[in-house]
Amino acid sequence: MSPETSLHHTPLADEHIALGAKMVGFGGWAMPLQYESILAEWEYNRKTVSIFDCSHMGEFIIKGDAVNCGLDRILIQSIADMPLKTCRYGAMLNDSGGVIDDLIVYRKALQEWMIVVNAANIEKDARHFRASLNANAHFEDISFKTAKLDLQGPQSRDVLKTWAKGIDQLTYYTFDQFQISGIPCLISRTGYTGELGFEIYCPWEKCKEIWKTILNNATVKPTGLGVRDVLRVEMCYSLYGHELEENISPRQAGLDKFIDEQKDFIGRQALLSRDPQRRIVFFVSTSRKSPRAGHKIFDGEDREIGIVTSGTFSPALQLGVGIGFINDTFKDAGSKIFFGDEKNKVSASLVKRPFYKNGSLKA
Amino acid sequence: MEIEDNYLYTKEHEWVSIEDNIATVGISDYAQEALGDVTYVELPAEELEVDQFEQFVSVESVKAASDIYAPMGGKVVEVNRKLEDAPGLINKDCYAKGWIAKIEVRDMDESTNLMSAEEYRSYLESLET
């Protein structure tokens, strides 16, 4: 099989092509990279409202008591204390404390959970849940029955209000059941852009209908994965395969605040007993020249001190921005660094996350 | 895909327009379309001596960087400084305002290694199949 024919397709593959999208393979899926241009789509998302097809992402349903069914022990975040209809970001680890995947938990009922995972990790994650949950847990992989559309941008709530009555009651990281054109959807106030936004989970076969309904509103424009990556880098959000990996711990990745150290979880001992050895850094280039994943990081004395994991031109800053890891040996190296290779180095400054501070996220 | 009739082209999608012994260089419509929004152009130093098909410029788009090769060998005598603040000129007007550099040509015979507009059009068609 050629790589192209082996790619999965979301329910909207034909729609993307009809809209003139450039398609690319991502995490085993054929996905729209861009429709118009990345800069135009960036501008539209930050100022108005965009829709993204994220049907490639995985969803699992787990039924059982948080602790008794073994779910709590799989996740780094506490879940037993989650109020109903709330979401919580976190991760699951291997025995060495490395990240198997980052994920969001939705508490649908006292003993019913939806877990949303990365597309490329669906099979691996399902295996891990099946192997680690107790026998009394019910586990179902609903990834190929569940489509997901992300409506993101400062005007997303106003647009969604026309169909989903009561959507303005949703606070950040909560969710509820709604209807769009009579189709039942689970909608959460979550996203990956730094803007006010919603993730709409709907039946796979109804996805096209909802996509068309929403795009019938001329305020909404379709947006591809290209700009999604720029938006998430501007917010310093991690992407699995870049800032998160089986050999990267959540402490190294700067996810400390999502770890509940008081409870027992797989990988806890390794995680808490070892020094992080490297730490995540966020840096801004002194020019439009942008860092790229794989670039090296140097200090002022030309010593190689780390590696770039994500990099892009930031339309918000009009400068290059990057995320990477610096070895702890060099943690006192100062805030001036260089990225590139031995021949070509560009100066940059370490900064606090996020790069983009004016988002409508919590509006 | 727009192709400028009187220009010559390379397989790497650079264009060149030669007047007297000065070659003005840029990238084709096909190239700017494939790159997407250009966000940075690393211009060559003036006076730089380059050989034909030697890498001498790098162009970055939001998500990637690409090398640009000199269509003719010679000395760089002028660069388009407007691209420093407005690299998007390459997307907007790749055959005129988006020019990148001017090269004082060393050996005019090198132009026989380039494609005419008509040849370039056939070349692009061959890439699509």
Reading off the top of the CATH hierarchy, the class of the largest domain in chain A is best stated as Alpha Beta
Could you please say which CATH topology of the largest domain in chain A applies here?
Gyrase A, domain 2
The span between the termini of chain A is 47 Å
Number of strands of chain B: 9
Q: What is the CATH class of chain B? A: Mainly Beta
CATH topology of chain B: OB fold (Dihydrolipoamide Acetyltransferase, E2P)
Shape of chain A: globular
Going across the major beta sheet of chain B, what is the strand order?
Answer: 1-2-3-9-8-5
Secondary structure: helix percent of chain B: 10-25%
Number of separate domains of chain A: 3
How many H/I helices of chain A? Answer: 8
Largest sheet of chain A: 6 strands, mixed
Q: What is the subunit arrangement here?
A: heterodimer
Q: Tell me the strand order in the biggest sheet of chain A.
A: 11-12-13-10-4-14
Strand residues, percent of chain B: 25-35%
Give me the CATH superfamily of the largest domain in chain A. Answer: Probable tRNA modification gtpase trme, domain 1
Largest sheet of chain B: 6 strands, antiparallel
Distance between the ends of chain B: 16 Å
Spatial extent as radius of gyration of chain A: 21 Å
